Amino acid sequence: MMKKKRILITGAGSGFAKDAAIRLAELGHTVIATVEIMSQVSVLEQELRDKKLKITVEKLDVTSEIDRKKAFEHDIDILISNAGISEGGAVVDLPEENIRRQFEVNVFGTIFLIQGFAKHFVKKKKGRIISISSIAGLSVAPFTGAYSASKHALEAFSEAMYKELREFGVEVCTINPGPYLTGFNDRMFEAPMYWKKDKKENVFDYSKINFPDYQFNPDEVVEKIIAVATDKITTYRNVLPDPKVTAVKDEESESWTRDYTKDLGKRHKAVQMAYKMKPGTKVKGY
Q: What is the pLDDT of residue 2?
């Protein structure tokens, strides 16, 4: 019999985290599903009532110290840190406030929440921190620089915590989803529409640019979260989908031998993909 656990999940108002919260509750675990704003609380609670599922739903904006302190009142076994936002746009065009907001949520608020629960786990000599990172934390696509930078930072924090907390019995791991069709990626590329600056100041015309990759069915990400949370998988880094693993490794290898003086004046093939793609384009046959 699998031991039932108390699990807190951030960013559970939609997407992977919401589905994972529901699945974990169906498996008999005690789940605290947290969402960013109060309006999401009532919406999720109604959905759970319709499913006849008992899940505690609470507001937790990771950038709010008050919300974080309230969350620390829960005695949990596993933290699934999923909350995050994405800011699309070329590095040269991104407004300062948007870059700062990206890091406030994905890095600072996220790490301050993890710190609190990590100290709780250290005292208990057990606990698990599952960071929902991204393939973007291991590679970079054009127009995703701010998001990728925030996830690279999360990867560094996670690697350090793995080494630092092991002696205290605290488990640390990451899940790195690639391009999945949840709407998250396409919304990232709508962000420039809402920038508080004149479009004429931009180097790129964002009305012609979309997420530069084909997208996969998201169901397998939820399965991976469940597997890591329930001890079926104990790998530190969990990259998916499988077809992207080799591509990530190849990109890292290529950067070691890249000649940055070549092909100046030519559009990079990954940038060209952003002009070619249409929103919500699925991978064929996957």
A: 64
pLDDT at 218: 87
Low-confidence ranges of the chain (pLDDT < 70): 1-2, 285-286
pLDDT of residue 1: 54
Six-digit token pair at 199? 């479009």
- State which H helix or E strand residue 51 sits in: helix 38-51
Q: What is the pLDDT of residue 286?
A: 57
Rounded distance between C-alpha atoms, residue 283 and residue 247, angstroms: 15
Q: Do residues 84 and 110 touch, judged by C-beta distance below 8 A? A: yes
**Torsion sign, CA atoms 80, 86, 91, 97:** negative
Q: How far apart are CA 219 and CA 217, in angstroms?
A: 6
With residue 65 as reference, give the H or E element that holds it: helix 65-71
pLDDT for 125-157, tens place per residue?
999 999 999 999 999 999 999 999 999 999 999
Q: What is the largest CA-CA distance in the chain?
A: 62
Give yes or no: 206 in active site.
Answer: no
pLDDT of residue 284: 73
DSSP string, 70-92: HHTTS--SEEEE-------S-TT
| Nearest in space to 140 (alpha carbons), one of 129, 124, 152 | 152
Catalytic one among 147, 162, 194, 260?
147
Residue 12 neighbours by CB under 8 Å, 6+ apart: 18, 20, 21, 33, 34, 35, 44, 57, 82
Q: How many residues does the chain have?
A: 286
What does the pLDDT read at residue 285?
62
